[in-house]
Write a structure and sequence with these properties.
- By secondary structure, the protein is an alpha+beta fold.
- The chain has a domain of 117 residues: Alpha-Beta Plaits.
- The protein is built from ten helices and 13 strands.
- The strands form three sheets. A nine-stranded antiparallel sheet has the order 5-2-4-3-13-10-12-11-6. Strands 1-9 form a two-stranded antiparallel sheet.
- Helix 2 packs across helix 3.
- The radius of gyration is 20 Å and the shape is globular.
- The two termini are 34 Å apart.
């Protein structure tokens, strides 16, 4: 699919996946940067969406800051029941990612539940409905990095600028002031909740895509942009950007590398891992008798061999040799969580 993308397409993808401009005429703004007409920018994005290179352009919110609870779930199902189980799981609106991976646990999905909901009860019900053999709840202990970004021109990872709600952004230690502040929900007004509902929707591909959003909210575009900036300052919104279909964009291999890291080296190693431009996510999660892996790093590369090389490089940098890379061989669901619906 990437053979259909010319240089301007790739440059445009670099812009919209990092920070889609929150201005009244964003396509004209990007066109001026790229030397393209506004209509050409819109047509290019329309074409890339039709080919599913671009999935969606919208706000990325921090689940916990909105009062939602979230975690990674690993589930083991009988191979012949896997597809049916995945469809049951996918029905939940809080499931944003669901992959089949080459692991003892063959289904891996992320789940978010609204305030007052129970992750434990929800997963137990899913396990009952799917007839799962077993499952593990894997909440985040330390959140070192989220920074999904690819250099589409050079064809390499570009996750050098990243976000750590846990306060680790390239720091050696977690800030001591308020270690769990990132887990606490921000109080939102009814108007702000309505704004979240609007900003989480895919933008319309027309010259002024934010105009109707502002009208529905009874405000101006400028005030909507100011509110979005406030959301970012408060840690509610991470950014406004596109999400790409990684494989169709050329990054064909998706590996979740899991590592056995000694407790005394958790922060040190997590920070080293997070600084790799190929690592898009980095977390520490709990262990279990049948699961000794503490650190999870998401790797995206042009090939499986590329993922293996990245993992080997991280192993050399950290000295951690006990690890494995779990590859997704089927994508059952990938979307953004829809809040307050």
């Amino acid at each position: 699919m990437t053979s259909d993308l010319d240089l301007k397409d790739r440059e445009l993808l670099n812009i919209i996946q990092s920070s889609f401009p929150l201005v009244e005429e964003p396509f004209q703004h990007m066109g001026e940067t790229l030397g393209l007409d506004e209509s050409d920018v819109i047509q290019r994005i329309e074409r890339m969406k039709a080919k599913n290179v671009v999935r969606q352009i919208s706000a990325i919110f921090d689940t916990r800051r909105l009062g939602y609870k979230t975690m990674l779930v690993a589930m083991k199902t009988a191979p012949e029941e896997q597809d049916a189980a995945a469809q049951v799981i996918n029905r939940h609106p809080g499931v944003s990612h669901n992959y089949a991976r080459n692991s003892h646990y063959n289904l891996w999905f992320t789940l978010a539940v609204p305030p007052g909901g129970s992750l434990e009860d929800t997963v137990a019900q899913m396990a009952d409905e799917t007839g799962a053999d077993s499952y593990r709840l894997m909440p985040t202990i330390r959140f070192f990095k989220i920074g999904v970004n690819f250099d589409m021109v050079k064809g390499e990872g570009a996750s050098t600028k990243y976000y750590s709600p846990d306060g680790f952004d390239k720091k050696k230690e977690r800030p001591k002031t308020d270690e769990d502040a990132w887990k606490r929900a921000q109080a939102l007004t009814d108007f702000e909740i309505d704004a979240v509902r609007e900003l989480q929707e895919d933008v319309t591909l027309e010259p002024r895509p934010f105009s109707e959003m502002a009208q529905r909210l009874g405000t101006s575009e400028r005030e909507l942009f100011d509110l979005a900036a406030s959301f970012q300052d408060r840690g509610i919104m991470r950014r406004f950007s596109a999400v790409l279909h990684h494989r169709r964009a050329g990054f064909h291999s998706n590996g979740m590398a899991v590592w056995v890291v000694p407790p005394e080296r958790s922060t040190e190693v997590g920070n080293i891992m997070a600084q790799s431009r190929w690592v898009t996510h980095c977390y520490e999660r709990p262990t279990f008798p049948d699961w000794p892996y503490t650190h999870f790093t998401m790797l995206h590369a042009m090939s499986k061999e590329g993922c293996e090389a990245i993992a080997q490089e991280i192993s050399q940098q950290t000295g951690i040799t006990d690890y494995q890379v779990l590859y997704s061989y089927r994508e059952y669901k990938k979307t953004r969580v829809r809040y307050f619906v």
